[in-house]
Amino acid sequence: MPIIKSAIERVKTNNKANVRNTAQMSAMRTAVKKFENAKTAGAENVDDLYLAAVSAVDKAATKGLIKRNKAARDKSRMAARYAK
Predict the structure, then answer these.
(1) Are 77 and 50 in contact (CB under 8 A)?
(2) 3-state secondary structure of 21
(3) Which helix (H) or strand (E) holds 19?
(4) Dist. CA 48–CA 43, nearest whole Å
(5) How far apart, in whole angstroms, are the C-alpha atoms of residue 26 and residue 59?
(6) Nearest Cα to 62, choosing from 34, 24, 23?
(7) How far is CA 11 from CA 4, 5, 18, in A?
(8) According to its UniProt record, which protein family does this protein belong to (predicted)?
């Protein structure tokens, strides 16, 4: 544990950001997996799940959790899978 006050505050801030980022990444991965599973199973709500997954990927890219190129690549793969 740090002794200096600013370092202590920084640890708290980093922990809060870590929790927030982890939750956001988990939500993104879950949305993408739900879409993939629904597409494989031939579910009826594939349209809604596709839009939710694209939105989650865009949000993660905007927040800086993933790079823009990864977001574009993921969305492209989902779009190709959605079109099949």
Answers:
(1) no
(2) helix
(3) helix 5-41
(4) 11
(5) 12
(6) 24
(7) 11, 10, 10
(8) Belongs to the bacterial ribosomal protein bS20 family.
